[in-house]
Amino acid sequence: DMHNDGIQDAIALVLAPHYSTFSVKSYVGRAQEEAEKLGNLTIHGIDSWYKEPKFIQYWVDAVKGIYNGMSEAEREKAVLIVSAHSLPEKIIALGDPYPDQLNETADYIARGAEVANYAVGWQSAGNTPDPWIGPDVQDLTRELNEKYGYSSFVYAPVGFVAEHLEVLYDNDFECKVVTDEIGAKYYRPEMPNASDAFIDCLTDVVLKKKESVL
């Protein structure tokens, strides 16, 4: 349709903030291959946008909002779990930056929200014979409770942007089953969805790419 409409340049933005050869590169690559076949159409892909200031600020504010509602005693026993969609472990051996980018994101958010206790987890792994990146958020919840006695868990699934099944089920149901089981409190900030702050973030990402390539 873009080719038929005479569009010669397009910017591809995958709604996943972290780059992986398994996901973002694959999605954008397929669009670029098709554009090349058609001719006179160039797809300019955005690799990642996890460092975008407004993206980090959204999550800093969201996490702060949860912690501000806690008593000082509860905050001391609370832990933030920052997560994203797991991918097959084999990407790590190939030098994929995906895990490191999630770790960076967790550091930025924890620093901005002034949260001392935090960890990185993975969720929504596929059901395949190959191992996927861990620890899984449910296993991590149990481990943090047993090891450090945390009794309040704040989940920030920053690899996703909306309240879809992987958040509503994998976090709000499966993780809450675990927190209920261990007698801990469950918290999850609202996802970015179509909030003005998040739309402003995506606008900045696209405009920066436009300025660099067009």
UniProtKB/TrEMBL annotation:
Keyword set includes Ribonucleoprotein: no
* SUPFAM superfamilies according to UniProt: Chelatase
Q: Which domain of life is it from?
A: Bacteria
Under the heading PROSITE patterns, the entry gives: FERROCHELATASE
Keywords tagged on the record: Cytoplasm, Heme biosynthesis, Iron, Lyase, Metal-binding, Porphyrin biosynthesis
Q: Please give the chief subcellular localization of this protein.
A: cytoplasm
Q: Which InterPro entries match?
A: Ferrochelatase (IPR001015), Ferrochelatase_AS (IPR019772), Ferrochelatase_C (IPR033644)
Entry-linked Pfam families: Ferrochelatase (PF00762)
What reaction does this enzyme carry out catalytically? Answer: Fe-coproporphyrin III + 2 H(+) = coproporphyrin III + Fe(2+)
Asked if the keyword Lyase belongs to this entry, the reply reads yes
The listed locations are: Cytoplasm
Q: In which pathway does it act?
A: Porphyrin-containing compound metabolism; protoheme biosynthesis
Q: Give the record's GO biological process terms.
A: heme biosynthetic process
Family to which the UniProt record says this protein belongs? Belongs to the ferrochelatase family.
Q: Which PANTHER family does the UniProt entry name for this protein?
A: FERROCHELATASE (PTHR11108), FERROCHELATASE, MITOCHONDRIAL (PTHR11108:SF1)
Q: What is this protein called?
A: Ferrochelatase
Task: Name the species this protein comes from.
Answer: Bacillus wiedmannii
**This protein's encoding gene:** hemH
